[in-house]
């Protein structure tokens, strides 16, 4: 049983590790690779819970690890991207503003965790940090092609949406797509557009990560379809 639990936990820890690597790349002003590492973190995040359920290996440890990984990969890492690419120019004020995103994200995760028993299949309260972090990454990646006011506005709006009490449809009753998958697809396409003329700089391990992720999504879709057929019989 311990061995089975270690499999989804490994995916969660890899998610956290890729978030850390993204922060390192942002510090070196390599924002394209920083975005790709967040993209891979999103793939891993959408897989760990499903794998735990497949193996019947869900645990409290896994849930806590998942929250810790999420705050790094989808809270701190996107905030660091936005800080080094934009807010750094505003000195200590920019540092304080950039720090708001992981703070709001941490609050959102903590609120979700304590209300987990009261959660519903139909909606989330507030935007999930995975979706918010993915969207912030997209806005940061393209901020040079957008009006300069767009990134700070998106930053503030996403912070507020995470801690808001707006009801967001959860799509839990639908096998695919989920918010993480939707944002992953958009982020992946955006990264392709950014890198399409710079293949010599493209990190080739993404060619392994994306096919594996697509295969996993396909497997989940087929499995869910079979499960529903069995219920109807």
Automatic annotation (TrEMBL):
It is found in: Endomembrane system. It is a multi-pass membrane protein. One of its GO terms (molecular function) is CDP-diacylglycerol-serine O-phosphatidyltransferase activity. InterPro entries: CDP-alcohol_PTase-I, CDP-diaglyc--ser_O-PTrfase, CDP-OH_P_trans, CDP-OH_PTrfase_TM_dom, CDP_ALCOHOL_P_TRANSF_CS. It is an enzyme of class 2 (transferase). Gene3D superfamilies: 1.20.120.1760. Coiled coil: none annotated. The chain crosses the membrane at residues 7-25, 92-109, 121-142, 148-164, 176-195, 201-222. Keywords: Lipid biosynthesis, Lipid metabolism, Membrane, Phospholipid biosynthesis, Phospholipid metabolism, Transferase, Transmembrane, Transmembrane helix. It catalyses: a CDP-1,2-diacyl-sn-glycerol + L-serine = a 1,2-diacyl-sn-glycero-3-phospho-L-serine + CMP + H(+). Its EC number is 2.7.8.8. It comes from the Bacteria. The keyword Membrane applies. It holds the Pfam family CDP-OH_P_transf. Belongs to the CDP-alcohol phosphatidyltransferase class-I family. This is CDP-diacylglycerol--serine O-phosphatidyltransferase. It comes from Heyndrickxia acidicola. The lineage of its organism: Bacteria, Bacillati, Bacillota, Bacilli, Bacillales.
């Amino acid at each position: 049983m311990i061995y089975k639990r270690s499999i989804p936990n490994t995916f969660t820890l890899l998610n956290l590790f890729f978030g850390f690597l993204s922060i390192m790349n942002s510090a070196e002003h390599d924002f394209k690779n920083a975005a790709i590492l967040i993209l891979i973190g999103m793939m891993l995040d959408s897989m760990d819970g499903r794998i735990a359920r497949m193996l019947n290996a869900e645990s409290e440890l896994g849930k806590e690890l998942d929250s810790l990984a999420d705050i790094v990969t989808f809270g701190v890492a996107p905030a660091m991207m936005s800080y080094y690419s934009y807010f750094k120019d505003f000195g200590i004020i920019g540092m304080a503003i950039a720090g708001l995103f992981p703070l709001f994200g941490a609050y959102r995760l903590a609120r979700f965790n304590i209300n987990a028993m009261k959660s519903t299949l139909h909606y989330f309260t507030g935007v999930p940090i995975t979706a918010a972090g993915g969207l912030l990454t997209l806005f940061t990646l393209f901020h040079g092609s957008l009006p300069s006011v767009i990134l700070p506005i998106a930053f503030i709006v996403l912070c507020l949406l995470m801690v808001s009490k707006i009801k967001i449809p959860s799509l839990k009753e639908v096998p695919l797509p989920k918010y993480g998958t939707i944002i992953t697809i958009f982020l992946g396409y955006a990264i392709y557009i950014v890198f399409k003329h710079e293949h010599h700089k493209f990190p080739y391990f993404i060619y392994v990560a994306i096919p594996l992720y697509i295969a996993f999504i396909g497997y989940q879709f087929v499995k869910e379809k079979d499960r529903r057929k069995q219920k109807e019989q």
